[in-house]
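job 3f2a | input accepted
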Amino acid sequence: MATMKDISRLAGVSLSTVSHVINNSRFVSEEIRERVEKVVRELNYTPSLVARSLKVKETNTLGMLVTASRNPFFAEVVQHVERYCERHNYHLILVNTNGDPQMLAKHLDHLLRKQVDGLLLMCAEPQDLDDPQLANIPLPKVIIDWWQQPLNADKIHENSELGGYLATKTLLNAGYQEIAIITGELSKPLAVNRLAGYKRAFAEQNLPLRAEWIVESRFDYQGGLAAATQLLALPHRPQAIFAMSDTIAIGAYQAIWRAGLRIPQDIAVIGYDNIEIAEFLSPPLSTIHQPKARLAKNAVERLIQRIREPNTPVQTIQLEPTLVVRESFLPKFSKI
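job 3f2a | predicted structure (336 res):
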């Protein structure tokens, strides 16, 4: 495998000059740049991301890598991350994969060229992320919510099992017993945990689960629309729907409207995340509030601590969700 020393020897320039050309870190004359780049092409040289990540000083810059999602939850978390970076006098560089796993290496390369001091990682939906480069980069890393690849990194997430339990228990306490659930992808641990919370609430009241009322979908509007349409077409439709995200709930709202039904008179809905638009729906959506600001605050502060104290044990910090009651279900439900 070719090295920068090989390029230096064949191009007849110093090792530092090769580094400046590859990293675009200092002016190099066009003649020398072309000579170095010609050797790079001939040797099919690929710069080592790991080597690039080794720094001699901090830059007070954090990188944040987010996989693309239409779920506003992630955009709201990023806004809070930016705010807390600014409070701690850190600059944030945000990149996302645009749903393309092949962009991962490109964006990592971009962040490492900028000599970020640490990485914040947030994965939206399951994707084909099998590239080991990220795991091999010796930079401090903190995962917000979830990351698909196993990494030796600190993690900040919410108690998703409790959130699923709270949503279901709230509907049960309001008098609903026939409650369907629309899940996100069950390859995502938080979806599995929220489903476990749903099942726990039913078990506490010795109520049977109906398999046709447990529908796996996606954490997006179309997923909610398709799954709710499926539920409403059943011979015995449920009294209420627990949607595992507010985006799923919004899709369910559309399906219910298309079916000529009313929320909450004909069917109740409770969501998850408490995104900003939830309170502006008609009717306003009851939902489980994910502590987005606290997720961001803990992630930024934990990453800064990890940068300053790199040898401390890896930590997992779990935050507690809360219930936000609005008008999408009827207290002490009775058909009207």
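job 3f2a | The two ends are 74 Å apart (CA to CA).
job 3f2a | closed
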